[in-house]
């Protein structure tokens, strides 16, 4: 035991020093507050409420919903100098996220998923910054109105028909058909890219793998470096720093997902053989010669369309089929409305949407019944705030 201890003195000192420095920094941060924190479980010495976080594999929304029963509509946990405020009430969420959006609109730091893997540059994880506002400005310019988006309605009609044909031919592969259809629509809108119609598409598979990696990378409590950010400075070969090797591999996959379709569109535009798309539109607006910042924004906003919508849309459509299987009476009423309004030998289009109120209600109820992201996306408090005599401290 002595030999092992003496053989790694520098490594052990570095690791211990990082941990002690972080703990000292957390414990010495000023904790002035004009009001008490929201109620919550009593923190333990040093680790705070670390053990009160969801366990690996546990559904987060189920865990945090229990806090509503125990502590009320607004609760909190604290660890290592940081506080997580949990909102379990619609009115509270509206008061803070909508009415005080300037204070509550930023995003928390995700060290592993954001900084090591690289997801911090995706729109949904951007902090409330100049770059975030530029992202939104560029997206709105091309896709920000119903009139602009209606250009892609014929595309969606075509892909829906291809989807139905695939389901008819291979009904046992429903989820894969949904993934193919969603990938086809979003990649066409973002890049003008036509997927492989009769099998798996390499770009769809690449993006899906990146999304699967993110689902693990962004899971709270999975990566110690998210709790102790100083660990990100450890070398990849250091014992216990295997997360860096994993992160670098996933980063390479993500950057390939971002870069490959971007370069494809640029090449097609140089050859004059490109299809209309979001990326083609923003490149045309910069006359094919974007600045480094414009190129960065163009690249990541285009990718955000797919990476932010692919898995969520697949989930919503899958839930719709589940709902129709569980509630056949609703399915019969929906079919009756389509047959009565559209006719038995024709598929509905976007032009028929306003004439199908029951279908509209079914879609909305499916989204309410099983929301894609029941936890939403975490927000960051940028200024100390008090709500109904309860303090929401600014993140340090």
Automatic annotation (TrEMBL):
GO molecular function term, any single one: iron ion binding
Record flagged with keyword Methyltransferase: no
Taxonomic superkingdom: Eukaryota
Keywords for this protein: Iron, Metal-binding, Oxidoreductase
Pfam families, A to Z: p450
Gene3D superfamilies membership: Cytochrome P450
Family statement: Belongs to the cytochrome P450 family.
Protein name: O-methylsterigmatocystin oxidoreductase
Organism encoding this protein: Aspergillus bombycis
Classification lineage: Eukaryota, Fungi, Dikarya, Ascomycota, Pezizomycotina
């Amino acid at each position: 035991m002595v030999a092992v201890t003496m053989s790694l003195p520098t490594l052990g000192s570095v690791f211990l020093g990082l941990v002690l420095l972080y703990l000292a920094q957390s414990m010495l941060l000023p904790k002035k507050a004009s009001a008490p924190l929201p109620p919550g479980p009593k923190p333990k010495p040093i680790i705070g409420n670390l053990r009160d976080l969801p366990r690996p594999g546990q559904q987060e929304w189920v865990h945090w919903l229990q806090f509503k029963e125990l502590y009320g509509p607004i609760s909190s946990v604290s660890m290592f100098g940081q506080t997580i405020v949990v909102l379990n009430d619609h009115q509270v969420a509206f008061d803070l996220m909508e009415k005080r959006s300037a204070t509550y609109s930023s995003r928390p730091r995700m060290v592993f998923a954001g900084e090591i893997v690289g997801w911090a540059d995706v729109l949904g994880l951007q902090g409330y910054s100049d770059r975030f506002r530029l992202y939104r400005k560029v997206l709105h310019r091309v896709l920000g109105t119903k009139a602009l988006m209606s250009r892609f309605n014929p595309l969606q009609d075509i892909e829906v028909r291809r989807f139905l044909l695939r389901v008819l031919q291979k009904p046992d592969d429903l989820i894969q058909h949904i993934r193919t259809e969603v990938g086809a629509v979003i990649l066409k809108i973002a890049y003008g890219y036509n997927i492989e119609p009769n099998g798996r598409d390499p770009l769809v598979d690449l993006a899906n793998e990146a999304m699967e990696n993110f689902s693990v990378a962004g899971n709270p409590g999975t990566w110690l470096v998210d709790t102790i950010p100083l660990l990100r400075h450890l070398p990849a070969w250091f014992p216990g720093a295997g997360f860096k090797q994993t992160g670098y591999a996933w980063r390479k996959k993500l950057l390939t997902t971002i870069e490959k379709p971007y370069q494809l569109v640029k090449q097609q535009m140089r050859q004059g053989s490109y299809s209309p798309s979001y990326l083609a539109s923003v490149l045309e607006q910069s006359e094919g010669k974007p600045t480094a910042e414009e190129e960065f924004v163009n690249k990541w906003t285009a990718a955000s369309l797919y990476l932010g919508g692919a898995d969520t849309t697949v989930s919503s459509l899958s839930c719709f089929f589940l709902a129709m299987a569980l509630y056949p009476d609703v399915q019969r009423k929906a079919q009756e409305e389509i047959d009565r309004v559209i006719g038995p030998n024709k598929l509905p289009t976007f032009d028929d949407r306003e004439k199908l109120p029951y279908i509209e209600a079914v879609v909305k109820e499916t989204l309410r019944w099983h929301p894609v992201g029941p936890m939403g996306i975490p927000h960051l408090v940028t200024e100390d705030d008090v709500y109904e005599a309860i303090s929401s401290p600014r993140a340090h």
